[in-house]
Amino acid sequence: MNAVAPKISFVSLGCPKALVDSERIITSLRSEGYELSKSHAGADLVIVNTCGFLDSAKAESLEAIGAAMSENGKVIVTGCMGAEPEQIRDAFPNVLAITGPQAYESVVSAVHQAVPPRHDPFVDLVPDHGIKLTPRHYAYLKISEGCNNRCSFCIIPKLRGDLVSRPIGEVLREAEKLVKAGVKELLVISQDTSAYGLDIKYAPSMWQDREVRTRFFELARELGQMGIWVRMHYVYPYPHVDEVIPLMQEGLILPYLDIPFQHASPNVLKAMKRPAHQDRTLDRLRKWREICPDLAIRSTFIVGFPGETEEDVQFLIDWLKEAKLERVGCFKYEPVKGAPANDLGLALVPEEEKEARWHRFMKAQAEISTRIVKNRVGKRISVIIDEAGPTVAKGRSKWDAPEIDGNVYVASRRPLRAGDIVTVKIERADAYDLHGVAV
Ligand code: SF4
Q: Whose CA is nearest to atom 4 of ligand 1?
């Protein structure tokens, strides 16, 4: 794996509509691990979002493309001038791709072709979409880069450095533009979302006409005012997370927390050097559910970490049965090149044993999930539609993030479109998915 994230330089010309497109392209690329470069020369690729409204705007666009060609050479052109590609091709036959206005998907595909995203399950925050792009009705909002923790199985701090938070004003403006562009659900991501702002001492920045601190709670509160679904990923159970639970109960943000616990046994957590690991986590979960009974917690775990014993596995499974987490994923430990865990000198767990532990874990969780999912039968819930269908549309509940959690299959007499939020009466459930009728 290349240690350096691909860098994109971006020039945005033109009207507010073009800016919204630029924002959408940048958000999408940022969520896939691309970084923005301040100069063309230091970038792997340049995107020029052009304006072709007046002759002077066309001239300015051609000039910007010319500068990008000479300073970098790898250039993708989009925006209004892209509607007349001949003019651009005549002047610059070597541009990599030309796409028209409001075609953010084609720009992002062109970037993937020229500088492929480096999908690595150990590093990436978003699921591997392959060639599929985030639909227009939801978007990932990346609030920071890097991480101050030093989990022993992880090389992200080495690759991406320490936490660098984006000022909250900038993040909220990006969110606002996405909402104006039709996004109905924002998925907040970073390596450690609850640590947001720590590196800049929670510095205030301007948002609308007031100062807002760059902090997890303020971020949740402000995003919660935007009238869309807001989902929080990669949250660690630090004490201040308690503050956002009432916002979930009030319906400002979704009653959903993605907390990568990774394990429950204190010995393993210590060897993993996990942040905020404490034996009172179960108490915290209980307290959160008292405040917001609707809360769904999703998590991931690793079995077979070096030094993990039979007792540790049993502890984890007993913990899981008590925690009753709604959505859970589990990985078998794989050493990552360069990670400190390789030098801990702990006994490696044999492959067959990892496999056996994984099956035990999954079996225990399947029983828990099935019970939780079955409890939803007969209820009326809100569902966001992801894919329209002739008779049955595919969507998600508030407790399901795209790609990683379950689906709700919705039968409806009226046609449903992607991005619609509808009330659905749940009629049946299978292991992970729900089936119901739009009411
Ligand atoms: S919290 Fe741990 S696992 Fe997550 S990015 Fe930071 S060091 Fe890696």
A: 191
- Selection from 308, 301, 297 nearest residue 266 by Cα: 308
Rounded CA-CA distance 170/176 in Å is 10
Third-level CATH fold of 138-375 = pyruvate-formate lyase- activating enzyme (3.80.30)
Q: Is the CB of 81 under 6 A from ligand 1?
A: no
CA of 431 to the centre of ligand 1 (A): 30
Low-confidence ranges of the chain (pLDDT < 50): 1-2, 129-132
- 394-424 pLDDT, tens digit each: 999 999 999 889 999 999 999 999 999 999 9
Q: Is the CB of 151 under 6 A from ligand 1?
A: yes
> Is the beta carbon of 154 within 6 A of some atom in ligand 1?
yes
Q: Where are the domains of the chain?
A: 7-114, 138-375, 379-438
Architecture of domain 379-438: Beta Barrel (2.40)
For residue 157 and ligand 1, the question of a CB distance below 6 A is answered with: yes
> Does residue 191 have its Cβ closer than 6 Å to ligand 1?
yes
Residue set of the binding site for [4Fe-4S] cluster: 15, 51, 80, 147, 151, 154
Fold of 7-114: Rossmann fold (3.40.50)
Give pLDDT, residue 384.
Answer: 97
pLDDT in tens, 112-139: 899 987 666 555 666 654 444 567 799 8
Residues 6+ apart with CB under 8 A from 171: 141, 143, 219
Report DSSP letters for 310-328, one per residue: HHHHHHHHHHHHHH--SEE
- Give the number of other Cβ atoms within 10 Å of residue 114's Cβ: 17
Report yes or no: 431 and 370 within 8 Å, Cβ to Cβ: yes
Q: What is the pLDDT of residue 1?
A: 38
**pLDDT score, position 132:** 46
| 183, 139 Cβ separation under 8 angstroms | yes
pLDDT of residue 101: 73
Atom of ligand 1 nearest to the CA of 234: 4
Whether the CB of 156 sits within 6 Å of ligand 1: yes
